[in-house]
Amino acid sequence: MGTVVLLMSMSGLPLVLFLLRRLGRWGGVAVEAGCGALSVRDVTMVATGAPARLCPVTRLLFFVEIGRSGTATLLGAREWVWRPLVSGPAREVRGHGAPDRCVARRYCRLAPAPPATGAAHVAAAVTFVVHTEREASCLRPGHGRLTRS
Questions:
Q1: What is the bridge-based pairing of β-strands 107-108 and 91-92?
Q2: Does residue 42 contact residue 69 with C-beta atoms inside 8 Å?
Q3: Does the pLDDT of residue 29 top 50, yes or no?
Q4: Per-residue pLDDT tens digits for 32-56
Q5: Which of 12, 40, 60, 98 has the most crowded Cβ, counting Cβ within 10 A?
Q6: What is the per-residue pLDDT for 44?
Q7: Quick check: 30 and 23 in contact, CB under 8 A?
Q8: Tens digits of per-residue pLDDT, 52-71?
Q9: H or E stretch including 123?
Q10: CA–CA distance from 5 to each of 58, 63, 89, 136, 145 (Å)?
C-alpha cells in the first residue's frame, strides 16, 4: 500500500505541469485546490501533534512542506482565482480566427493567461516535490517516526 501512495505522490508533479500547461486558468484552479488540500492537511497534522513523533529529517521536510503548500495556496489564489476575476472590463471577442464563444452577448470576460513560469507555478511544483520526498522518507522501515531506545 505504501508503494501505491508513493506512486500517487510522484504523479503529483507531472499532473501539476500538465494542468498548468494545457488547461490554463482552470488547470491553475485545480492545482490551487490540490495545494489547498495539502495545506489544510499539514495544519491539521500540526494541530494533532504529528511533528513531535517524526524523526528530525522527516520533521524538517514536513515543516518545509507546510511553508511551501501555504505559499503555493496564497500565490495560486491570487494568480488563478483573484486576478482573473478583477482583471478589468469585458472585451469584445473578435478576430484572430477564434470562434465567438459568447454568441448571445458577443462580450465575455477574458482573463489574461497566467505567466508560464510565475511564482505560483514554481511554488506549486516545489510543494509537490517536497511532498513526494516526505512521503518517501515515511516509507523507510521506521516510517519516519522517532525510535524510542
A1: antiparallel
A2: yes
A3: yes
A4: 898 899 899 889 988 998 888 888 8
A5: 12
A6: 93
A7: yes
A8: 888 888 888 888 989 888 99
A9: helix 119-138
A10: 17, 20, 45, 9, 17
Q: What is the pLDDT of residue 110?
A: 46
Q: What percent of the chain has pLDDT over 90?
A: 7
pTM: 0.67
Residue 56 grid cell: 528530525
DSSP secondary structure code for residue 141 in this structure: T
Rounded Cα–Cα distance for residues 71 and 128 (Å): 12
Query: Considering only CA atoms, which of 84, 102, 83, 82 is closest in space to residue 92?
Result: 102
Could you tell me if 8 and 137 are in contact, meaning their C-beta atoms sit under 8 angstroms apart?
A: no
Q: 75-84: buried (b, 16+ CB within 10 Å) or exposed (e) per residue?
A: bbbebbeeeb
CA distance 132 to 5: 10
The shares of helix, strand and coil residues in the chain, as percent rounded to the nearest 5, are 65, 5, 30
Task: State the amino acid at position 7 in one-letter form.
Answer: L
